[in-house]
Design goal:
The protein contains eight helices and two strands; from the N terminus they run H-H-H-H-H-H-H-E-E-H. By secondary structure, it is mainly α. It folds into two domains: about 40 residues; about 110 residues, no CATH class. A two-stranded antiparallel ribbon has the order 1-2. Helix 1 packs across helix 3, helix 2 crosses helix 3 and helix 6 crosses helix 7. The chain is elongated and about 55 Å long. The chain starts with 10 loop residues before the first helix and ends in a 7-residue tail after the last helix.
Length: about 170
């Protein structure tokens, strides 16, 4: 027999609160539950208001990145880039925007592209390995990440993962 919930949260209520600007952490605190419970209840609904980060994750070009490789700053910058492509600078912290713009400049000025391969050994850019930067090639076009056996792009991801022009 399923356990009865000790809260009155519904996917619809969470969606309404998210649209009003409350974060999942704030909703959890308001209702005396964990953020995980809010996420679980939210996902039970047919539709729900996604955070920009959740939407960015949907378009991330690599599925099942190991947790250790998600802690890398390259992973964070790619995710920030997708989020920024979706919503612009609003909703991102000043620090995130500054770091992202500096990263874009580095990619442009040094003609670099992000490469993901879980077999890449630890290196100066990734203590746990998996990520590196290589010189951009013509086949890379204006993408920020190289397409390979581990990276595949939907049409939407291809649109979101273009390197922006100079600011």
């Amino acid at each position: 027999m399923p356990r009865k919930a000790a809260h009155n949260l519904t996917p619809q209520l969470i969606d309404e609160l998210r649209i009003k600007g409350f974060t999942q952490a704030e909703i959890a605190e308001m209702h005396g539950v964990s953020k995980g419970t809010v996420t679980y209840v939210k996902q039970q609904g047919k539709t729900f208001h996604k955070t920009p980060r959740e939407e960015a994750q949907e378009h991330f070009p690599i599925k099942n990145v190991p947790r250790a490789l998600q802690r890398n700053t390259t992973y964070q910058r790619v995710t920030d880039h997708i989020e920024n492509s979706l919503i612009g600078d609003k909703g991102m912290s000043e620090r995130q925007v500054k770091l992202l713009k500096a990263w874009h400049k580095k990619l442009r000025d040094l003609k670099l592209i992000v490469v993901y391969d879980p077999e890449i050994p630890p290196n100066i850019h990734a203590k746990s390995g998996g990520w590196s930067y290589e010189t951009r090639e013509q086949r890379d076009g204006d993408l920020i990440i190289r397409i390979n056996d581990y990276v595949s792009l939907t049409d939407k991801a291809r649109e979101l993962l273009r390197i922006p022009g100079e600011d």
